[in-house]
Amino acid sequence: MEIKDLHQIEKQAYKKSHAELTRIGIALFFMVGVLGYSFLASGGVPNSLFLAIATVFGAYMAMNIGANDVANNVGPAVGSRALTMGGAIIIAMIFEAGGAIIAGGDVVSTIKKGIIDINGFGQDSDAFIWAMMSALLAAALWLNMATFARAPVSTTHSIVGGVMGAGIAAAGFDIVDWGTMGAIASSWVISPVIGGVIAASFLLAIKKTIIFREDKISASVKWVPVYVAIMAWAFVTYLVLKGMKHIWPAISSFVNQHISVFELASKPTLLQASTTGLIIALIVYLLLKSSLRKRMSSLSNDRDSVNVLFTIPLIFAAALLSFAHGANDVANAIGPLAAIYDAVMTGGINATAGIPLWVMAVGAVGIALGLALYGPRLIRTVGGEITELDQMRAFSIAMAAAITVIIASQLGLPVSSTHIAIGGVFGVGFLREWLDKSNRLQSHIEDDKNEIQEEKRLLSALRSELNMLLDKKTKTAQQYQRITELYSSIDREKESLKKAKKHLKKEKKNLYVKRDVIKKILTAWLITVPAAAVLSASLFYMIKGLMT
C-alpha cells in the first residue's frame, strides 16, 4: 500500500513539474520571439541592443501584469462560480489584449505619474536608458515574487518604485517628486477603504431590498434592474473616462461632423461620460425589467435564484474591467519601454514618446499570455481564499471597482485598481461578519487564545517544578513520587495544549475573512514601492558597472 501511495505521489509530482516546465518554455519562447523581432525592427540603430533587451524586459513585465493584476478583474467572478477558471481566462485574455491594442493609445507618458524629473539626467541618454531598463526589470521581478507568494500587489506601484529607485541611483534624491510619492503612499489607505465601503454598501443594499424580504422574486423584479442599470452607468462612464480616452478624439470628430445636435470635446469629460452611461443604463433597465417579468414564474423564492440573476451582469463586469485594465495598465509595461525606444531612436530624452504598434502588441500579448500561464494562482486567492463569494458579493466588488475609480479620478486621488478590488473583497467579508449577529466566532477565538495561554503557563510551572526536583542531588520517596506525577501532568498538559491549538486553528478557518491572508497582502502592499526601488537601484548600479 505504501509503495502504491509513493508511486502516486511521484506521478503527481512529475505531472506538476512537467506542466511548470511547459509554462516556462512558452514564456521563454515568447521573449525570444520578442527579442528577435526587436532586432529586425531597429537593426542598425545605435544602442539597438539596449532596445532589444529592454523589449524583453517589457515582455516579461507584461506577463507578470497578466499573472498578478488581472486576477482582480475576474477573481470575484470565478470565486462566485459565475465563470469557470477557463472561461474567465479566455474572456480576460480577449478583453485585456483588446483594451491594450484598441484603447491603449499611441502616445504613452514615459515617466509614470511624474515620479522623477527627467531634467535630472541632463543629456545623458545612456544613464536614462539604464534607469528605465532597471525599473522595468525590477518591477517585473517583484511582481513575479509576489505572484509566487499569492499576494496581489499593485503593478502601478511596482513600476513607480522601480522608476524612483533607478532615478535616485542615477541622479540622487532630488530627482524624485516627493509630493507625488506622498500621494501614492496615501493611496495605500485610500484605495482599499473606499473600495471596501462601496462594496459593503452595495451588498447591504441588495440584502435589505431583496434577500431580507419575504417575497424575494417580486423584490428582485423591482430592484435587480435598478442595480444592473447602476452597474451599466458606472461601467460605461468608467470605460469612456479610463478606457476610451485615446480613441475619444476620433469619436468626437465623427459626432461633431455628422450629428450637429451634439458637440463633444476632444477629451471625454465626466458630464459626457456619465450622460453616455445614463442613456445605456436606461436601455438596460427597460430591457431587464421586461425580461424578469417574463421569468418570474420560473424562479424560486430563495437566495440561489436571486444569485442567478446577477450572473450575466457579473460576466459583463469582468469583461469590461479587463478591457479598461488592458487600456490603462499596459502603460506599466510599455511606459518605460517607450522612453527607451524614444531615447534610442532620437538620441534624446523626452517626456512623451510615440509607440509603434508592435511595441503595443508586446504589452497586449504579454498580459494575455501571463494571465493564461500563471493567472489561476492569484485568481484563486482573490476569488476564494480571502472570503467566500457568491454572485451578489462579487457583483458588489465589481461595482466598487468601477465607481471608486470614477470618484478618485475626478478628485485627483492616486488609487490602485488592485487595492480597490481587494478592499472590496475585505469590505464584503467584514460586512458578512457584522451582519451575522449569531456568529460568535471571534469571541470563541479569543476564549481559545486565553485557554492556550493558561495551558502554557501551567505547563511552564510544571516544568519549573520538575527541573527543580531533578536538580536536587538527594530526593525523598515523596519527591520521586511527585516527579512521576509531574511527568504525567506534563504529558496531559501537552496533549491539552495541542487540542486547544487545533481547535483555535479550526475556529480561525471559519472566520468570514481570513486574517492570515489579510496580513500577507497588507505586508506586500506596504513593501512594494521600497522593495521595487531597492531592487531597481541595485540593477542600475550593476548595469552601470558593466557598461563603464
TrEMBL record:
Major site of localization recorded for this protein: membrane
Signal peptide from the UniProt entry: none
Transmembrane segments: 21-43, 49-70, 82-103, 127-146, 158-176, 182-204, 224-241, 270-288, 308-327, 355-374, 394-413, 419-435, 521-543
Coiled coil: 438-514
Keywords of this entry: Coiled coil, Membrane, Phosphate transport, Transmembrane, Transmembrane helix, Transport
Subcellular location: Membrane
One annotated GO molecular function: phosphate transmembrane transporter activity
UniProt GO BP: phosphate ion transmembrane transport
GO cellular component labels: membrane
Similarity comment: family membership: Belongs to the inorganic phosphate transporter (PiT) (TC 2.A.20) family.
Name of this protein: Phosphate transporter
Originating species: Methylophaga aminisulfidivorans
Species classification: Bacteria, Pseudomonadati, Pseudomonadota, Gammaproteobacteria, Thiotrichales
